Structures are given as structure tokens and as C-alpha cells.
Amino acid sequence: MAEDLTDDTDRDAVAAAPQRSAPTALMEPQQAFAELGHLVVGETPLHQVLTRVAELAKACVPGADDVSVTLLEGEKARSAAFTGALAASLDERQYEAGFGPCVHAATGGQVVRVDDTGHEDVYPDFAAIAARQGVRSTISVGMPMPQRLLGGINVYRFDEGALDEEAVQLLQVFAGYAAIAVANHALYDSAVALSGNLQIAMQSRAVIEQAKGVLVASLRCTPDEAFAHLARQSQHSNRKLRDIAAEIVERAGGGHG
Questions:
Q1: Which tens digits make up the pLDDT trace of 91-120?
Q2: Cross-strand bridge partners of residue 114
Q3: 77: Cβ–Cβ under 8 A, 6 or more apart, which residues?
């Protein structure tokens, strides 16, 4: 499968250049793992969790100059968090093409390395774009998550040489901890959304039953005939059945007031 990452090369010229900051002491891995475990489900929004994942990966993995987090929901991929605009830009080029290290790491759950962007055979177009932006090597690690949510952590390095094996192993362990945090928060968000949808459904059912009762009394028909009447009104007016029912209930209440 051939890449298609070479279009619109003007974007490369205006993409953010690598921001090199003064070296800082690395965070101890155990401290980063502990912080991921202390992100309280229900109190920390998912987007904040993802942002912290990117920040902690950059803080504890030696040689990680820019980091992004890829999420795939169904067929749609996006950079859910990133520590710099360059990482987001390079990720987006891959999403558009549907081909690249971060896409394959997230979908396959494996480690995908580009150790030298100046000499790369598997992802030559992506590597050429990255090299023009000052990126010397990249590594993407899949996050093992359940359900329909897939993800990965992408590291971009500006200095010569790829991440050493110890750093790669640390990134893989970090990805495992991050996957647990992200999965827990994502499942919580899904549960909240499901609960909200169920509440709406129950409210809709209640008002529809009330409207059916009004129609049974006013039209002297059966409950099934009342529902069919509601359905016809909904179809003819191209409006939600619940809204039609709510209007009938409201009119009936006003008439009795």
C-alpha cells in the first residue's frame, strides 16, 4: 500500500519548527506511573487525562522531544493530545493518508519505529516530511485498550540517533499504564453518556404514554390506534414523535387548567 503524504507540501514549510528547550531533569518513571493511577475517574475529564499522558511520556522517557496521543474510534483517527504543534501536524498527515507509523501502531497494538527519517523504506514519504521539519527519528507504541477504542503514543525526536532499547522498553511499560487510565476514563464517559441516553429514553416513553392516554380518551380509540395516530403525525410533520406527544400532553393540561 503506497503512502499519499506528499500533497500540499506548502503546509510543511509553515508547520511549527521544533521547539528546543533547555534540558530538564527526567521524571522518575514510577512517579509518572503513580500519577496516572491517581487520576480520579469521574473528576478528571478524558481530554485532561490524554493531555497528561502526553506530558508524562515526554517528562519520563529519555529522548522524547515531542509526544502525541492517537485515538481511533471506529474508522476515525485523531490526535487527542500533543505536547507540540509539530507532533499534531505530522500525525494529521498520516490520518489523511490512512497510512503511517502512528496509525499502524494504534490499530495493530505494536511498536512501529522509524530510526532514521533520512533513510526509511517502509514509510518514505512520511519520513521525508518529518525530516524536513527537523525530526530525526520517531517511535509509535500501541496502547492495549478494550472495547472499540484504540490508541497509541507517538514520540518524535529531534537529535541524532533513535531512542535506545531501555527508553523503548520504558515507553512500552508507560503505554500499558496509560492504556488503563485512558480506558477507565473512556468507559466512565461512555457509561455517563449511556445513562443520560437511558434517562432521555425513559422520559420520552413517559410522555408518549401520557399522550396515548389523552388520545384514547379524546378519540375513543385503543392504545395501539393512539400510537399509530402519533406516528402518522410525526411522519407527516417530519418531527420527533416525542415532541408531538409533548405538545398533545401540554394542550390537554392547558385545557383542563
A1: 998 888 888 999 888 888 889 999 999 999
A2: 138
A3: 70, 71, 94, 95, 102, 103, 106
Cα(234)–Cα(256) distance, rounded to whole angstroms?
25
Other beta carbons within 10 angstroms of residue 93's beta carbon come to 24
* Side chain identity at residue 187, one-letter code: L
Quote the CA–CA distance of 31 and 80 in Å, as a whole number: 23
HSE, CB side, 13 Å, CA atoms: give it for residue 135: 32
Burial class (CB in 10 A: 0-12, 13-18, 19+), 120: buried
In angstroms, the CA 153 to CA 143 distance is 7
Neighbouring-strand partners of residue 138: 114, 156
Alpha helices of the chain — where are they, by DSSP H?
Answer: 10-14, 29-37, 46-60, 85-97, 101-108, 124-132, 165-219, 223-237, 241-256
Alpha-carbon separation of residue 92 from 71, 106, 179, 224 (angstroms): 12, 14, 21, 52
- Alpha carbon dihedral 126, 70, 103, 10, in 10-degree steps, equals -30
Mean pLDDT of 126-145: 92
pLDDT digits (tens, 9 = 90+) for 51-103: 999 999 999 999 999 999 998 876 677 888 899 999 999 999 888 888 899 98
Query: How far apart (Å, rounded) are the C-alpha atoms in residues 29 and 170?
Result: 8
Nearest to 68 by CA among 42, 37, 100, 24: 100
Of 115, 101, 172, 166, whose CA–CA distance to 143 is shortest?
172
